[in-house]
Amino acid sequence: MNFPPVSVLDLAPVIDGADHSQTYRRSVELAQHAEGLGFQRFWLAEHHNMPDIASAATSLLIGHIASNTTTIRVGSGGIMLPNHAPLVIAEQFGTLEALHPGRIDLGLGRAPGTDYPTMHALRRDPDNMDPNFDELLEELEFFQGPVSSAQPVAAYPGSHSQVPIWLLGSSTYSARLAAMKGLPFVFAAHFAPGAMLAALDMYRQFFKPSEHLDKPYAMIAINATLADTDEQAQFLATTEKQKFLGMIRGKRGKLPRPVASMEPLWLPHEKRQLNNQLQESIIGSPQTAKHQLDDLLSRTQADELMVNSMIYDQASKLHSYELLAELVGAHKR
């Protein structure tokens, strides 16, 4: 099977024993590595109040990564638009586009990217904790568009920026909205795979051509852990499983070291829940990963894949992306 373009999702994960400065250096190293391997784009995601994720100031980090690379597209996967005034996002990404022309993507989500108390701290207004995402998106598009003589407020920079907008989601809501607006759509199968096929079907069924796209363009976000052997990959992937186990239990800490076995750590019902939540994760040697990727692509017909690797050791993480790039032929594009 011919593989579609493959991109990298980075949450700037803070590993056990590291601080934020070290984390950002690891993200820069990963971005430069991904660029050299021929991956399509490098995205960062907005999360707040999470000790294991350092990408809260997403626009700042995008600028830092873009300044330390030269060709790879850099963007958000995503900015949680309800946390922000659309004017501010138009200005921030207009600035990024002016600094790095033709390399910036704006992926948008409607979840808070955090817990309720933090959402309250971000949005401030207790009477408007769940603003209408459709209206926010329309307002953002307005500020990214041309400025009329009668327009009292405009984004400088930001207007006429032409920064591509992507809609992200883990349900059919964003899929339908992306379809109706003719925007590219990204499904978050890396943490909520349940509605993947239904969302893709809806997106393709209701897609309306637009100035952005003449046909649907669907990306699937997945977790992937590759190593030289299946056994080594399974060992490295226990970091990912421990992270999600902590989320199930409502306990968050820095990204943990891998362990020899998960069996002493989880209860039977937790194991079932985790296996369901991580059912689309790619784990194994290149040969095993190829079979898993072939199956995913045959079911989804994805136009692009975005891969997040929750691997504790930096050298092993970089090697995982090397194996993936060789497998999908990223350097040949």
Topology record:
Layout: E1 6-10, H1 20-37, E2 41-44, H2 58-67, E3 73-80, H3 86-99, E4 104-109, H4 116-123, H5 133-144, E5 165-169, H6 172-181, E6 185-188, H7 196-206, E7 218-226, H8 230-236, H9 238-248, H10 268-277, E8 282-284, H11 286-300, E9 304-308, H12 314-328
Parallel strand pairs: 1-2, 1-9, 2-3, 3-4, 4-5, 5-6, 6-7, 7-8, 7-9
Overview of the molecule:
By secondary structure, the protein is α/β, with parallel strands linked by helices. The protein folds into two domains: 1-163, Alpha-Beta Barrel (TIM Barrel), CATH 3.20.20.30; 219-328, no CATH class. Helix content is 42%, strand content 15%. It is built from twelve helices and nine strands. It has helices spanning 20-37, 58-67, 86-99, 116-123, 133-144, 172-181, 196-206, 230-236, 238-248, 268-277, 286-300, 314-328; strands at residues 6-10, 41-44, 73-80, 104-109, 165-169, 185-188, 218-226, 282-284, 304-308. The chain has an eight-stranded parallel beta barrel with strand order 1-2-3-4-5-6-7-9, surrounded by eight helices. Helix 6 packs parallel to helix 7. The relative contact order is 0.15. One of its GO terms (cellular component) is cytosol. This is Luciferase-like monooxygenase.
Quick rundown:
This protein is α/β, with parallel strands linked by helices and 333 residues long.
Using brief descriptors, characterize the structure shown:
globular; eight-stranded parallel β-barrel; 333 residues; alpha/beta; 42% helix; TIM Barrel; 2 domains; 12 helices
